[in-house]
Amino acid sequence: MGTIARIEVKDGNPVAAVQELCVQLLGDDEIAAVLVPRRLPGTNGTMPALITDPAELRDADPLAPSFRINGARMLARLTRGGTDGGLVAAFLRPCEVRAFVELCKLNQGSMENALIISADCPGAFSNADYPTFAGNGDAAEAETDFLRAEGRGNFNGVEIARACAVCDHPSSAEADLSIGIFGQSPDQGLLLLANTPRGEGFMTRLQLPEVVDDGGRSKALGELVAERSAARDRMFEETSAATSDMNGLSTFLAACVNCYNCRMACPVCYCKECVFLTDVFDHKPWQYISWARQRGSLKMPTDTVFFHITRLAHMSTACVGCGQCSNACPNGVPVMELFRTIAASTQRAFEYEAGRNLNESPPLSVFREREFAEVTGGLE
């Protein structure tokens, strides 16, 4: 285990303590900029901002349970091909870290050009529910209560997004530095853990007081992972039963309007040209009439189920379960549930887990001679 230090929290405000950490990092000669969620006006949550002026960090809030966009693709854009004069210090959720790892494997970004910091993640609210969570009171106080509860429970009548409620990776060992929240009293102090040699180097320069691991964080993490893994398995069973045949799958996806928001929101869907945005699916009027005559009726728009099946074929080995697909859906289609369920099965078949290890090649990029011998009959 790497070095563990303590981040002092003043006046019961953990967000201010993390803002100070951002200021310290920005003052380091190796850091060119900080990529961090920053509060939007009112109760609209947060959006990532690339900050070079310490004064602009006053609204930074990487602990807010707001998750409007997965920042992995933005960090990939900032690090691919090198940065100008230093590293980007990026505050990412664990699912964003894993998505960034996948993008780096696909040569879309570079771990070498980033210092990744990830806080223990109790979860986040959907875009629709976050304003209800924030209410009209003190957002900082509400966030501290949320962190203390580790995402469990009902907050102003809303609960965390289902993707978060079934997430079995609430912390990130792939980050250079981890901010430890679980098992702590976040209004009194936070932990900072170094997971990599780069993280150790920055930890040394931050000159924070070192502490001894008392096991509290590991215990709290274990309990949360157990709860969410059980919820995840229940979701897999429900979704598998609901989509066991084409009729069920069509019903499951019935509200899809082919807006492609899920494709745009997915952090690991990186193709420069999508087949669904070409003339391949630009059907002629007579084709629609012909299909309608054959069946008696034709659901419009067409190709909605085929769109999701194609995306599943492309993305199931890379899905990290962040839930942004469902978060972006205007009609409440449970896209996350379907993708997470299929991805779990696909990744299990390949003995692969998206975002687990930078040195682990994506399964479809590697040929294994005796793979799936139960299907091929094996090779003599």
Concise account of the structure shown:
With 380 residues, the chain is of the alpha/beta class. It has helices at residues 14-26, 72-79, 94-105, 130-134, 139-148, 162-165, 197-206, 216-242, 246-252, 261-265, 285-295, 304-315, 324-328, 335-349, 373-376, and strands at 4-8, 31-39, 46-51, 87-91, 114-119, 177-180, 189-194. The longest helix has 27 residues, at 216-242.
Question: Strands, helices and their partners?
Answer:
Blueprint: E1 4-8, H1 14-26, E2 31-39, E3 46-51, H2 72-79, E4 87-91, H3 94-105, E5 114-119, H4 130-134, H5 139-148, H6 162-165, E6 177-180, E7 189-194, H7 197-206, H8 216-242, H9 246-252, H10 261-265, H11 285-295, H12 304-315, H13 324-328, H14 335-349, H15 373-376
Parallel strand pairs: 2-4, 4-5, 5-6
Antiparallel strand pairs: 1-7, 2-3, 6-7
Helix pairs in contact: 2-3, 8-14
Shape: globular
Helix content: 25-40%
Q: Rounded to an integer, what's the Rg over CA atoms?
A: 22 Å
**Helix/strand-derived class?**
alpha/beta
Biggest pleated sheet: 7 strands, mixed
Q: For the terminal residues, how far apart are their CA atoms?
A: 44 Å
What can you see in these coordinates?
The chain has 380 residues and is α/β, with parallel strands linked by helices. The chain folds into 2 domains: 4-228, no CATH class; 245-376, no CATH class. Helix content is 39%, strand content 11%. The protein is built from 15 helices and 7 strands. The protein has a 7-stranded mixed β-sheet with strand order 1-7-6-5-4-2-3, with helices on both faces. Helix 2 packs across helix 3 and helix 8 (216-242) crosses helix 14 (335-349). The protein is globular. The termini are far apart.
